[in-house]
Specification:
alpha/beta; 214 residues; two-stranded antiparallel sheet
């Protein structure tokens, strides 16, 4: 896939979904950890693996098949990532996945990707991603590092407060799409939570939601 083609952003629900990572080095480890964050069912195929992957296997978190990739392996999974640094193997994985209509990503090899993996910052359910269409992973990583410092734990707490308020409105059969949400977020709620004034932040949210529904 040419890197200049526009990408369509999605967030996949992978809980329990069988996913394959081909390769056992540090890059493969990063792919595995990302999939585990989404609670995927991960299998690794590689003759050798780094110690951290062995530890995950020993803990029962992933499955490891200690062998080389064999043609057709990719067809048994819903999503595949390959990180072998071997163009021949990565090419075979890509061809098999494409033939089986399985989404595939090859590390640092955009032509052998049907999807790319953005750099990301995760704070609980809050997920912020950075992508460059495969043109500059360094820029994506740089942006992630900058926003990791900006997006502190208070953002996760802010999301929790908003989610709880939304759930309450849903339970009462009230509309959830109101301008009061934005008004509350613009009113300094984040700063209140950052300063430990959680109760005040909740009161401010309720006041903004009440005034927006008048």
């Amino acid at each position: 896939m040419p890197v200049e083609e526009p990408l369509y952003p999605v967030n996949l629900r992978l809980h329990g979904v069988p996913c394959l990572v081909v390769g056992g080095g540090p890059v493969a480890l990063g792919k595995v950890r990302g999939l585990l964050d989404a609670r995927a069912a991960v299998t690794v195929i590689s003759p050798e693996v780094v110690d951290e992957l062995d530890e995950l296997h020993d803990a029962g978190t992933i499955t490891i098949d200690r062998r080389r990739y064999e043609r057709g392996d990719a067809a048994r999974y819903r999503l595949v990532m390959t990180a072998t640094a071997d163009p021949e193997v990565d090419g075979s994985v890509f061809e098999d996945a494409e033939r089986a209509a399985v989404w595939v990503n090859a590390a640092d090899d955009p032509p052998h990707c049907s999807f790319t993996v953005p750099a990301r910052v995760r704070r609980g359910a809050l997920l912020v991603t950075f992508a460059t269409g495969g043109q500059s992973p360094a820029l994506a990583a740089w942006l992630r590092e900058r926003f990791e410092l900006e997006l502190g734990p208070e953002y996760e707490q802010l999301l929790t407060v908003l989610a709880e308020a939304r759930a309450e409105r849903v339970s009462r059969g009230e509309q959830t799409e109101h301008p009061g949400w934005k008004r509350a977020l613009d009113s300094g709620m984040l700063e209140m939570i950052r300063e430990g004034r959680l109760a005040e932040a909740k009161e401010r949210l309720q006041a903004c939601l009440s005034s927006s529904s008048d």
